[in-house]
Amino acid sequence: MLLVKGLSCGYGRKTVISAMNVEVAEGEFFGVIGPNGSGKTTLLRALSRAIKPIRGSILLKGKELWDIPLADVARQAAVVSQLVPRVPMTVEEFVLLGRIPHFERMQFVESARDIEIAHKSMALTDSLRLKDRPMDQLSGGERQLAQIARALAQEPKLLLLDEPTAHLDIRHQVVIMDLLKRLVRELKLTVVMVLHDLNLASEYCDRVALISDGQVFKAGTPAEVLDYQVIEAVYQTVVVVHKNPVSGKPYVLIVSEDELKKNRDAYTRGT
């Protein structure tokens, strides 16, 4: 679905990503993880054509991304940002914005088919019940569901998400992640998602790319990447990695400075 080769890009004279290589298979749930400032969001912005590469290429289904007309890109790929705008429109009106890439020439209003697809997208995300509610009166989790519904209304094959679970409580995090996993399975979507939470990435992603200083430090399955030595090398913090007792996936535990001191002191005393 996506092939990133030797990608370098950034902002102005500042290069954030340098000579990056990433491959995402069709129908894959792919996570992008890494510390703050490592280049995760910059990569996603490059994949969505928000910023242009300095060097290298991005191939979308074998075609150079910047050679594809923007309207065609919008029909193949949809973006879900971290922040959902509090706009003075209903959820239905907001979701229908996702149909604009499919408008025919000289079409200015939504057709019956556009409304049908928007309602189907809302039903898939459990936001149809909210269709008449104003966006600026919804909770953060509800607005995020509406934003995913708008992306689905584009009928994309590729979904690009920038930390969609940020600022959400654990229930809404699970709701969003379960929904995305179901969409990958049922709609054969390809999902590329930036995540800060290593445990969410481990539990839901088929593969992950760990980004450090604008390059891929390691890529592979969560079991291959989320090793305590790898995490400590990139994040510069001590962690313990165990297996989730239910799924068997890696589970990352933090270790506080106080606990480190206690254990170090105990080790020094030989206890």
Keywords:
271 residues, single chain, 12 strands, alpha/beta, four-stranded antiparallel beta sheet
Strand order of the largest sheet: 6-7-8-3-9-10
Based on secondary structure, the structural category is alpha/beta
Identify low-pLDDT runs.
none
Reported for the largest beta sheet, the result is:
6 strands, mixed
Count of individual helical segments: 10
Q: End-to-end distance, in Å?
A: 54 Å
**What is the 3D shape?**
globular
Number of strands: 12
From the alpha-carbon coordinates, what is the Rg to the nearest angstrom? Answer: 20 Å
Mean pLDDT: 90
**Approximate helicity band:** 25-40%
Taken in chain order, the helices and strands follow as EEEHEEHEHHHEHEHEEHHEEH
Write the layout of secondary structure elements.
Layout: E1 2-11, E2 14-24, E3 29-33, H1 40-47, E4 55-60, E5 63-64, H2 70-76, E6 77-80, H3 91-96, H4 112-124, H5 140-153, E7 158-162, H6 170-187, E8 190-194, H7 198-204, E9 207-212, E10 215-220, H8 222-225, H9 228-235, E11 239-243, E12 250-254, H10 257-269
Helix pairs in contact: 4-5
Question: Please, could you describe this protein's structure?
Answer:
- With 271 residues, the protein is of the alpha/beta class.
- A hairpin with a 2-residue loop joins strand 9 (207-212) and strand 10.
- The model has no long low-confidence stretch (mean pLDDT 90).
- It is 36% helix and 26% strand.
- 35% of the residues are buried.
- The termini are far apart.
- The radius of gyration is 20 Å and the shape is globular.
